[in-house]
């Protein structure tokens, strides 16, 4: 992202108003892209948690804070700083995720992997997960940046991310994910799925 911004400065430095506009668009794209990758991370973790028996990557804020408190006295300064960044990230993810799809956090708190839960969640969230993976993951962002920088079209790529991907993110994917989570929650609850204690 920094390299792309530097190329934009080089490309538009002759015109202050164009440079200001392009940098404002780059900043807006960076912020909204962080929402995209943060929500992708959350829904990827939920999908894997409910559909794969051995998945253990994600942790909630309370678990992370408890782990940090238990380990911080013995950790060097750099690790404590890294912890603060991580805690900020997962708190932000949880807060934004609660607004983006309230039922996703209910699913994460109340259900764990069973074959039945996996089938239910795949049925409802599978199509959305494919779109999350293909368009909004960190790998998609980095690949798009690399190709657009290599082809010297970073400005067009930023517009694509800002206009087209935000339209897909808020206009299609958010309602689709909300529907999928609500339906999965309803079916898991009515099916008497194994509840977490």
- Count of strand segments: 0
Helix run count:
8
Q: What's the order of the H and E elements?
A: HHHHHHHH
Low-confidence stretches: 193-197
Q: C-alpha Rg, in Å?
A: 20 Å
Average pLDDT, all residues = 90
Oligomeric composition of the shown chains:
single chain
Query: Which overall shape is indicated by the principal axes computed on the Cα atoms?
Result: globular
- In percent, how helical is the residue content? over 70%
Structural class, please? Answer: mainly alpha
Question: Kindly, what is the distance between the CA atoms of the first and last residues, rounded to a whole number of angstroms?
Answer: 43 Å
Q: What's the story with the biggest beta sheet?
A: none
Proportion of residues in extended strands = under 5%
Task: Summarize the model shown.
By secondary structure, the protein is mainly alpha-helical. Helix content is 83%, strand content 0%. The longest helix has 37 residues.
Set out the fold topology:
Elements: H1 2-12, H2 16-51, H3 61-71, H4 77-100, H5 102-110, H6 115-136, H7 138-150, H8 154-190
Q: What does this 3D model show about the protein?
A:
The protein is mainly alpha-helical. The protein is 83% helix and 0% strand. The protein has helices at 2-12, 16-51, 61-71, 77-100, 102-110, 115-136, 138-150, 154-190. Helix 2 (16-51) crosses helix 4 (77-100) and helix 3 runs antiparallel to helix 4 (77-100).
Features:
single chain; about 200 residues; mainly alpha; disordered C terminus
């Amino acid at each position: 992202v920094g390299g792309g911004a530097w190329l934009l400065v080089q490309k538009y430095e002759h015109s202050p108003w164009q440079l200001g506009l392009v940098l404002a668009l780059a900043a807006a794209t960076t912020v909204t892209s962080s929402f995209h990758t943060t929500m992708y991370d959350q829904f990827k973790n939920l999908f894997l948690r409910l559909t794969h028996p051995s998945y253990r990557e994600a942790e909630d804020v309370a678990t992370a804070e408890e782990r940090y408190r238990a380990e911080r006295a013995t950790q060097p300064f750099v690790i404590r700083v890294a912890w603060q960044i991580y805690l900020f990230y997962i708190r932000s993810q949880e807060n934004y995720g609660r607004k983006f799809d309230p039922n996703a956090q209910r699913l994460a708190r109340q259900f764990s992997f069973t074959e039945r839960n996996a089938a239910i969640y795949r049925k409802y969230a599978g199509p959305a997960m494919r779109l999350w993976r293909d368009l909004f993951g960190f790998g998609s962002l980095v690949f798009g940046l690399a190709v657009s920088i290599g082809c010297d079209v970073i400005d067009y790529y930023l517009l694509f991310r800002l206009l087209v991907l935000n339209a897909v993110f808020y206009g299609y994917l958010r309602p689709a994910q909300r529907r999928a989570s609500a339906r999965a929650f309803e079916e898991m609850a009515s099916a008497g799925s194994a509840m977490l204690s």
